[in-house]
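Support case: pyridoxal-5'-phosphate complex. Customer-provided input:
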Amino acid sequence: MPVATLNMIRLDRRLRASLQSQLYRQLRELIISGKLQTGIRLPSTRDLVGQLDVSRNTIVYALDRLIGEGYLNSRIGSGIYVADLQQPTPGNRTQSAPRSVPEQVQTSRRTVATANASISPTYSTSRVRPFRPCQPAVDHFPLRTWNRARSYALRSQSNDMLREGDAAGLLRLRRALAVYLQDARGVRCDAEQIVITAGAQQALSLVATSLTDPHDRVWIEDPGYLGARAAFLAARVNLIPIRIDNEGICIPSTRKSPRVIYCTPSRQFPLGTTMTLARRLALLEFARKNDCWIVEDDYDSEFRYVERPLPALQGLTGHDRVLYAGSFSKVLFPSLRLGYLVVPEGLVEVFRKAKEIGDAGCATIDQATAAIFVEEGFFSTHVRRMRKLYRERRDVFLETSSRLLSGWMKFPDIDAGMDATGWLQSNASDARISRELAASGVDVPPVSAYSLKTSPPGLVFGFTAFSPAQLRSALKAVAATMKL
Ligand SMILES: Cc1ncc(COP(=O)(O)O)c(C=O)c1O
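Agent response - structure generated as follows:
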């Protein structure tokens, strides 16, 4: 609880009432009305003397009276606090009353377009339960090393850390990322082409608002990532769901070419397909011929368990049509809210400005800490460790699910990523099964929740954030609920 400011107190020496009684009445009124909430600490007597310009005795007598009447509590050595009056005050009454929504709220068309959108499926609890997809094992994150890097950044560059930074992001982090992305993902870029964003989600929103106009056609993988759909819906584009086959996103033969194509080539979300080289080249050729942009969302490519990852689409010829989005959410931790967008040279200024207008840039201290993490090798050590941990968890998941769920559900090989989509029989309702499993404590969103068109029924299982024991017991719960 913060310390109250008591800025609302006005004492007037011209009034007949004494200063002490004015103070008593005003404080009591603030407490009864709920403007001073239960538990808030009052400033010290000494601070009040300076602030209200009255004697110490005036304050002490007024406060003592309120303590005696039960409005305030005094805790020795720690201060004076507003007491819990144990009766609904007007202040806490309004908090618990349902908010009344005026019948016809005037909002923008953009708001109406996103009224039913959201960046993830709806869960019955905010707790991360097995098998919520896309969750890193945050309990294995090296927090002490992170904190040391953070303290070091603050100590060594204290004033720069506190001043406003470049909206496009801290140059040190962009340089470190440029080296990492070229080396690990074959992305062609220099630091100038990178904009640091608030997660990949903001990268997608910036693309949607900077490169499209309302009603422009945008091709989007279907089933696909809900956050991408929401970002483009907010830009009021004409979303066209595009089918995925075993080579990745299909390229429809159409004369109406899109403005933007959104795809996840390294590992299609949520189906897990890796886009083949032939399809990548065909997509780049299509984009070149039809003058459209490709958004490559490379959100979890660090986690590949067999052979080496295919280089990014952006690194192939034709990279001047590709915007490459990446994220620290899976490789570090999601609440960090740091991601990045690599843009073609001609768009550098467009995106720097969009980020500046959007939020003026991400927190410098977090960027500096992430830069040290990458530069000093903590990042690659952590990725290596997590890849090993996730591979072990994948093995436990596949072994147990094939023992307990086979016959009911089929899993393809899991070569990469953080989740696995299991396929149900074609007449099953994945939404109904997902609801039943949620009621027994297991979160497996249905493939239909990610689809605009009708999709084959399936369930998406995240396996990375859960220990082998949790995986086994949750799979047993699935089998028991489904009476397998
Ligand atoms: C396919 C895909 N892209 C992007 C993201 C968003 O990542 P961020 O947390 O960086 O916004 C996610 C998050 O789960 C995702 O699954």
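The chain has three domains: 1-86, 142-378, 381-481.

Case will auto-close in a few days if no follow-up is received.
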